[in-house]
Description:
The protein is mainly α. Helix content is 48%, strand content 0%.
Amino acid sequence: xxxxxxxxxxxxxxxxxxxxxxxxxxxxxxxxxxxxxxxxxxxxxxxxxxxxxxxxxxxxxxxxxxxxxxxxxxxxxxxxxxxxxxxxxxxxxxxxxxxxxxxxxxxxxxxxxxxxxxxxxxxxxxxxxxxxxxxxxxxxx
Length: 141
């Protein structure tokens, strides 16, 4: 009983490692050309994390004959990306990032964006109240 709890805790502790194990199960099924196992793995809830192109490719492979020489290129690329994320220490995101919303406007107020909000991405934000114009004078001081 305690080993089952420890296993469950370990399984829940690293979602990316769990997902990579799932991808390894798919890889074994694809290499063995086991259509039933591929189909059952794609029915799991974890399959919703696969990109559409990868799922479609895996379904197509499961429907091909065992003598087919078609390689699961999209799947292998995705699996490699997940391995690189894990090697880089990235974590699998489990929830969406919350967006910062503006506070509600007063009744009848018109919102106008400030100049800082409309700055182009290529322009660095100004530090302080000085002008960051193209005159080049602030570069020498």
